[in-house]
Design goal:
The protein is an alpha/beta fold. The chain folds into 2 domains: about 5-130 and about 255-320, 3-Layer(aba) Sandwich (D-Maltodextrin-Binding Protein, domain 2); about 130-250, D-Maltodextrin-Binding Protein, domain 2 (3-Layer(aba) Sandwich), CATH 3.40.190.10. The chain has 12 helices and 10 strands. Strands 1, 2, 3, 4, 5, 6, 7, 8, 9 and 10 form a 10-stranded mixed beta sheet that branches. Helix 3 (about 45-60) links the parallel strand 1 and strand 2. Helix 3 (about 45-60) packs across helix 10 and helix 5 (about 100-105) packs parallel to helix 12 (about 300-320). The radius of gyration is 22 Å and the shape is globular.
């Protein structure tokens, strides 16, 4: 029997790799070096926090260091483009979210990546509600009072948004409630909250974990949350669904993806690792303290959910007259 030439063996292995198939021995060798999770947003936000929690858990699960790399800019587009163009070897991941994997397709005419085709879905990771807050000086202590006030004087209320996802969530509220509020864009949640506290804007929809500390300090007034169920961290706050606005059920969500073309054996190991991390009580408790709910899924479930979200927010954007940039 002839022993295969080493070059032939390596060439065959390379061909299998490019075809997305890894022999068991090579699959078991992965990961052989540190991984990175690209976060398409600045440090400190909920996507960054979730990513760092997952990086720590995946490091222990995979036996390799997992680092977080923040690539902020252009509503997450810069980081998403970098992740989409990375080598599909399983060593580069991205913590996508509602913006990068759904809403950007509704508000930008051309993206340098395709939310559906540029990535290999791994798993949903987390979700949390938005909180509806107003300036304390506003004479509205409930959602019905806010709606009544807004209808009495159309366009008299200003709402802020730090990004397309938060703007469209507020536009969905406007459509469901029959309101007309004036949009004021911000480059980040921090400046929007500062202006809400100062009274330069009256209404703000933002992530629960970002806004609730200001509610606790009495600097802003919380009226409701946008999830289907009340938050255990603020059980006194009603949901918009309870208040008769089920179409405004909105969650800010995060999901782990990899560049398109990652070998199935590698993506399967990633899926398994993510699910094991999210099942750990310590990880669940860490996320819960931030008002974040851990949520895992199959890659197929993630792909379907992201597609549904994309279609939903495109419809909201069109109804609100938000033209793609």
């Amino acid at each position: 029997m002839n022993i295969p030439n080493r070059r032939i063996v390596l060439a065959a292995a390379a061909a299998l790799l490019s075809a997305g198939m890894l022999p068991p021995a090579l699959a078991q060798a992965w990961p052989g070096k540190p991984l990175r999770i690209i976060v398409p947003f600045a440090p400190g936000g909920v996507t960054d926090m979730v990513s760092r929690t997952m990086a720590q858990g995946l490091s222990a699960e995979l036996g390799q260091t997992v680092v977080v790399e923040n690539r902020a800019g252009a509503s997450g587009i810069s980081g998403a483009e970098a992740a989409a163009k990375a080598d599909p070897d399983g060593y580069t991941l991205m913590m996508g979210n509602i913006s990068t994997l759904a809403i950007n397709a509704a508000v930008f005419e051309k993206l340098p990546y395709d939310p559906q085709k540029s990535f290999t879905p791994i798993s949903m990771v987390a979700r949390q509600p938005l909180l509806v807050a107003v300036n304390p000086a506003l004479p509205a202590k409930t959602i019905p009072e806010l709606i009544k006030l807004g209808k009495a004087k159309p366009n008299s209320l200003n709402f802020g948004s730090a990004g397309a996802s938060l703007r469209l969530a507020t536009e969905a509220f406007n459509q469901a409630a029959g309101l007309k509020m004036t949009h004021v864009p911000y480059k980040g949640s921090g400046p929007a909250m500062t202006d809400l506290i100062a009274g330069h804007i009256e209404v703000l929809f933002d992530a629960f974990s970002s806004l609730y500390p200001f509610v606790q300090e009495g600097k802003v007034r919380a009226l409701a949350i946008t999830s289907a169920r009340r938050s255990p961290l603020a059980p006194e706050l009603p949901t918009l669904t309870e208040l008769g606005l089920p179409k405004v059920e909105v969650t800010s969500w995060q999901a782990l993806v990899a560049p398109a073309g990652v070998p199935p054996a590698v993506s399967e190991r990633l899926v398994d690792a993510v699910h094991k991390v999210l099942a750990k009580p310590a990880v669940q408790a860490q996320l819960a303290r931030q008002g974040v709910e851990p949520v895992s899924s199959t890659p197929q479930e993630l792909a379907r959910y992201a597609d549904e979200e994309m279609k939903r927010w495109k419809a909201v954007a069109q109804a609100a007259g938000v033209k793609p940039e």
